[in-house]
Amino acid sequence: MTPPDDAPRFNSAAARDIEYALHPYTNHKAFRETGPLIIDHGEGVRVFDDAGRSYIESVAGLWCASLGFANQRLADAAYAQMKKLPFYHAFGGRSHDPLIDLSEMLIQRAPLSAGDRPFSKVFFANSGSEANDSAIKMIWFYNNAIGRPAKKKIIGRIRGYHGITVASGSATGQPVNHKMFDLPIAGFHHVSCPHHYGYGLPGESEEDFATRMAQELEDLILREGPDTVAAFFAEPIQGAGGVILPPATYFEKVQAVLKRHDVLLVADEVICGFGRTGRYWGSQTFEMRPDILTCAKQLSSAFLPISAVMISEQLYQGIAQGSDAAGTWGHGFTYSGHPVPAAVAIETLKIYDELDLPNLVATRGAYLQKAMRARFADHPLVGEVRGTGMIGAIELVADKTTRAKFDATRKLGARWQALGQEHGVMMRVMLGEIAAVSPPLVISESEIDEMLDGMHRALEALGAEI
């Protein structure tokens, strides 16, 4: 039966959402026509909408719900801390047990920093964007403190993602985060995306491609002046840029360039940290030795907002020196090290230890990678299937031989994502036609099969349409 012309297009909750909410990463003109998808509850690797429909979350929400969408231990940890100390700040040297315990646990689990030394100190924020923004301010403060006021420029990578504050958004290398925001601001530069499949020259090996990428970085540093370039930001795997794995020898060659010109390396582990790549840290998977490491998302399995910045002893000594000269280190957030998110993060790390998470991910990740390739690698619409551990991507192409992309105006990625939802999988298709695969780390092999089968059925439906 066709509804009458005057029938309401949306239920009450959806109508109120359209009326009052300003959603992130949303085309708001189109949104007023389509309305929201309202998620009501979660269980395991699934979320359920307000009509009772179930979806496997193929990207763990936003790369973050590592333990799924319900965990009694994390809920209990939050409640217990709320009853004991629901809030206190860390300004002026004040502290509390959750902040102290979590700082110690992170340092104990951290990879080695530059010079193969342990990390020294931890600073807490509320999101990956804030963590990377804080890292930039630390770098600027540090170079002022040690008498290098000109050494301030930051280098990121095209398709890199480091957040959306003014500074972290400037380090990010994605046009959608720059358009109409007047970003990047002065002092931020970008080198090429290190995607061999997408940007390698004909006949160019991964190693030769990595050499070319490292040379481009060195050329930029020399052109700007090594005495003005402060740091290089890099995700071990570029997540939101399309799950781009570094080519063989890439970080080895890049780090040699940075060392030659005394440029700090910041490892953005917001997506890769806490087992996602099959090691505890993506830095370990790709043999990075950063001066600064940022993390968030899986730190609390996304149950509450919290992020962290770990710094080397060299950085800490410079900041300590500068804070004495200035009278204080004038940076921090009301909720830095908030006791409730910190308590949840502590319990999250304990669960990771009990699961032996890196080994769990290495085993289950191998299953995921094999299953992805078996279903998608030979599909006529798929150019590349890539990934490691529990993170991967399926990239569509118009022509497998030439690697030509589809016309962006056809919006096939958005259509594939919508078809995935119809087949019971919450997908995230980025940058046109790249589907990320980054499910909760506790997903079972049978759930992996169910997820990939739904994505494959959606792709078959897309193929039939085009």
From TrEMBL:
What molecular function terms (GO) are annotated for this protein? transaminase activity
SUPFAM superfamilies reported for this sequence: PLP-dependent transferases
Q: Which PROSITE patterns is this protein grouped with?
A: AA_TRANSFER_CLASS_3
The cofactors required by this protein are: pyridoxal 5'-phosphate
Gene3D superfamilies reported in the protein's UniProt record: Aspartate Aminotransferase, domain 1, Type I PLP-dependent aspartate aminotransferase-like (Major domain)
**Which UniProt keywords are given for this protein, alphabetically ordered?**
Aminotransferase, Pyridoxal phosphate, Transferase
List, alphabetically, the CDD domains matched.
OAT_like
**Source organism's superkingdom?**
Bacteria
Pfam families for the chain? Aminotran_3
The record's similarity note reads: Belongs to the class-III pyridoxal-phosphate-dependent aminotransferase family.
Name under which the protein is recorded: Aminotransferase class III-fold pyridoxal phosphate-dependent enzyme
Q: Which organism is it from?
A: Roseomonas haemaphysalidis
